[in-house]
Amino acid sequence: MSQALQETLSRVRSAVDSRLPKLLAHGLSAGLLEDPRDPLPAAAREALLSPGKRVRPGLVFLAGELFGAGEDRLLDPACAVEMIHAASLALDDLPSMDDATTRRGRPALHAVHGEDLAILAAMTLVVRAFGVLAEAGLSTVRPAAALDLVSRLADASGLQGLSSGQALDLRTGDADASFDRLETIHARKTGALFVAAAEFGAVLGGARARELAAVRSYAKNVGLAFQIVDDLLEKEDPSRTGKQARRAPAPTFVRHVGEEGARRLVGELTLHAVEALEPFGARAALLREFASLLRDRSA
Ligand code: GRG
Predict the structure, then answer these.
(1) Which of 21, 89, 239, 254 could pair with 262 in a Cys bridge, judged by C-beta atoms 3.0 to 4.6 Å apart?
(2) What's the CA-to-centroid distance between 136 and ligand 1, angstroms?
């Protein structure tokens, strides 16, 4: 990895890791956060602050910096995206979904805090994400841009995004798992949040419609490739992704086209992602490298 990308990603990671707990605690006194009779803050903190790669905030920043947006505008919206992601992991792990025993190499949230609190923690993170965007609109981000982000994140979370993708994933058996169906599932359950993250950066940097479309195409392809790599890693060795699940294997491209076919697909998607950046020339070097980094990741 180039030094420039390494520096950017570790800067984003530490900024996000130190900002997330503050955003979560918004308005709560330390006493309330640590009240042993109130079990929800600890569950929400564990869901949000357990050690994730912070890939989506990285994408917000890389796309934002392409258009000259500063950290002061990017940080809280990037944290809002991470909140939705963290909520989705807690829900995905529930016994009624993937029935995971571990996540990020630790016991799944519901295994420690119970299913009831895991659901409430996820709800808390979802509503907090939109609260964070509202507050950004009252401080660092123009109100119209903040509303734009709210709308994009809502779309990425609902019937065009995560929730729909997960529902299709849960209800698609091997017999229905056509190429198109798998593409829809992956585009919604994983791609949509990548697209929202990249759009966040572009909107905050004042990108024009055509630039926004290019960034969206990049993120859609990277998101699909990311999910396929996740499935490849999980097939090779479940401990690599830090998640172990009891649910019978979900519909994946790895099952549909085999490991080699899936690897080829990842290569093609990454190529399409990079092609989408052509209009930006050398300015998009870090985003290009980011796509390759995610393609070649081993965890
Ligand atoms: C939150 C509104 C809302 C709905 C959630 C449960 C659900 C609906 C969707 C499931 C989406 C899901 C878990 C998709 C898998 C995406 C994926 C590959 C996750 C792993 O992402 P990483 O590797 O994880 O970035 P870390 O742990 O590094 O953050």
Answers:
(1) 254
(2) 24
Q: Judge contact between 68 and 48, C-beta under 8 A.
A: no
The pTM of this model reads 0.98
Does any ligand 1 atom lie closer than 6 A to the CB of residue 186? no
- Tokens, residue 209: 């419609």
Please state the separation of Cα 52 from the chain's center in Å.
Answer: 10
**How confident is the model over 194-216, as a mean pLDDT?**
98
Instruction: Specify the 3-state DSSP secondary structure of 18.
Output: helix
Q: Tokens 């949040």, residue?
A: 193
Query: Measured from the CB, is residue 76 less than 6 Å from ligand 1?
Result: no
The string of pLDDT tens digits covering residues 123-170 is 999 999 999 999 999 999 999 999 999 999 999 999 999 999 999 999
CA angle, 279 as apex, 277 and 285 as ends, to 5°?
A: 45
Q: Tell me the DSSP string of 70-115.
A: -HHHHHHHHHHHHHHHHHHHHHHTSTTTT-EEEETTEE-HHHHH-H
Q: Is the CB of 55 under 6 A from ligand 1?
A: yes
In the prediction, which pLDDT does 58 show?
98
- pLDDT score at 35: 84
The two beta strands, 106-107 and 100-103, are antiparallel
CA of 5 to the centre of ligand 1 (A): 24
